[in-house]
Amino acid sequence: MASAQPPGAAPPARPNVVVVLADDMGWGDLGCYGATKIPTPAMDRVAAEGVRATDCHSASAVCTPSRYALLTGRYAWRGPLKRRVLLGHSPAIIEADRPTLASVLRDAGYATGAFGKWHLGLGWRFRDGRAWSAFDPGAPLWPEVDDGSNVDYAAGFADGPTERGFDRFFGIAGSLNMAPYCYLDQDRPEETPSVPKRAVHYGQRAALEASSWDETEVDARFADEACSWIARQVRAGRPFFCYVATAAPHRPCLPPAFARSASAAGARGDMVCVVDWVVGRLDAHLQALGVRDETLFIVTSDNGAELTDVDGEDHGHRANGPWRGRKADSWEGGHRVPFLARWPGRIPAGRETDALFGLVDLLPTLARACDAPLPPGAAEDGTDVLGLWTGSGGTGRASLVSHSVNGTFALRREGWKLIMGTGSGGFSVPRGEPCSATQAAGQLYDLAADPRETMNRWYAHLEVVADLYGDLKGVAGSPSSGLSFDVVPAGASRGARGRGPGEP
After folding, report:
1. In a domain, 503, yes or no
2. 283 φ, ψ to 5°?
3. Is the peptide bond before 249 cis (omega within 30 degrees of 0)?
4. By Cβ atoms counted within 10 A, which residue in 192, 298, 331, 364 is the most buried?
5. For residue 495, with 0-12 CB atoms within 10 Å meaning exposed, 13-18 middle and 19 or more buried, which class applies?
C-alpha cells in the first residue's frame, strides 16, 4: 500500500493518514478562510484539493482536553481533568487501557508515529521517589513546582505516547511556555535539561532547559523527524499514521529566521506561516515518495486563537474570523476550528461542508476510512462523519458538546447553543461563572439567526433551555463530569418574559 500507484489508478482501500494539528490556530488564520495578512499557500492547496469544513469544533477551547478527545473519541471531562490544562510535568490522563486513534490503527497493521507537542501528561519520576497517577484519589494534576528541579530526568517517563499506541515519538511535553525545555525521544529527554533557562520569553515559565535548546527550531525539527520516519515506512511497505502536532502558533511566538516577517500580522502571524511551511514540507515529501495520492491528509487546530500578537496588537487580522471570543472561551471563537482534509479519488476537490462535527469524531471516522475495527467501548463520544468529507452522505451531528477552560459546558443542537454559565468561561471578559444551584443564569443563542452570539435568549426561551439542559445532563451522565445537575434555570419561576444579561 505504501508504494506509488499508476496514473489514473483507483486509490487504495486503506490510505496512509497524516494529521497536522496546529496549536492555537484560529478559524480566520488561513487564506482559505478569509485571511489576507497571512499567506498560507500550502494549507490553501489542501483545501482546494479536498474538503474545507466551516462548522468543525474542538471538544474544548484549550489544548489538553481537546487533544484527549481527538485521540480517544471521548470527552476529557469523563476522566480526571475537569478544567484547565496540564503542565509539562503533570501525570498522564489517557487511561492505560483506553483505545486511541494510534492503538486502533496500529492494531490494524499501521505504523504509528507522533511528532511534536504531546500535552497529555507523562509519568515522570521525581527525585524524592514519587511517581503519581492522575487516577489516584486526590492525586495532583498540577505539580507544586514545575521548573524541573525536582524531576529525575535520567529515569525517563512512563505512560507516554509509546504506551498509548504510537510506535515512535519525538516531541515536547507541553507548550513552548512550560518546562521541560527539551526534546523528548521515545520515553526520555534527548538531552537532559540541566541549565537555568537563559532567555525567558513572553509568557514562559522560568525553568531548566537543555544546553542546546532553541525554541525557534522546534517545528522544523518535528517536520524533519516526521519526514524521516515516513520515508522508512514507505521503504518497508507499511501503511502509516503520522500525527504531527506543531508548537506554532502558540505563544511565545518565536519564528525561525526563514519565517520572520513572512506575514503582515506580526510574530504570531509569522508562526501561522510556520504551520503552513510544515504542511508544505510534509506534502512535498509525500509527493517525492510517490504516496501523496494514497494518503488522507488532514489539517486542523486544537482550539481557537489568541486575538492579538505578543505585542498586544491584532495588526488588522481577525484570527478567529467573524466569530465571537477567543481561545479558552465558550463562545464560537474558542472552539470553532479550521478543518481541511484531502484524499485523492475519495474526497472531491474543492468541496465545502457546513455540517456540524468535531475533532472528537476523528477516531471513528479514520477507523472506518482505514478499515480498522473499533474495540468495544472505544470512541464513546465520537461519530463516523466520513460521508460529510467525501460527500457520500450524512447531514452532520445532531448535537455536540464543547467545554471552556473554567469547566463551563455548552451544547449545540438544531441551531441552538446553550452555555451553562455566564460570560466567556475563558479568557475574554466578562469571564463569568459556570451554572450551579446558586448560580442559575446562563446563555442561549439562536445560531441560525445570530451566529455572532450577540443576543442572549435564555430568558425568552426557557423551555428550550430546559430541553437542552436535559440533553446535556444525558450526555454528561452524572455530576462527576463537572456539570451541575441541580440547576433551576434563572427566570423559570417568573415565566419566559424576564430579561437577562445581554437581552434588551
Report:
1. no
2. -65, -45
3. yes
4. 331
5. exposed
User: Is residue 415 domain-shared with residue 391, that is, in the same domain?
Assistant: no
Bond preceding residue 373 cis, omega within 30 of 0:
no
In whole angstroms, give the CA distance from residue 248 to residue 26: 12
The torsion angles phi and psi of 366, rounded to 5 degrees, stand at: -70, -30
Whether 167 and 315 map to the same domain: the answer is: yes
Pairwise CA distance, residues 476 & 485, whole Å:
9
| pTM exceeding the 0.85 threshold for the entire prediction | yes
Q: Are residues 386 and 423 in the same domain?
A: no
Give the tens place of pLDDT for each residue, 382-399. Answer: 999 999 999 998 889 999
Q: Of 275, 268, 270, 249, nearest to 309 (Cα)? A: 268
Each residue's pLDDT tens digit, 42-80: 999 999 999 999 999 999 999 999 999 999 999 999 999
Instruction: Give me the domain span that covers residue 465.
Output: 406-497
SS (H, E, C) 283-351: HHHHHHHCCHHHEEEEEEECCCCCCCCCCCCCCCCCCCCCCCCCCCCCCHHHHEEEEEEECCCCCCCCE
Does residue 400 belong to any structural domain of this protein?
A: no
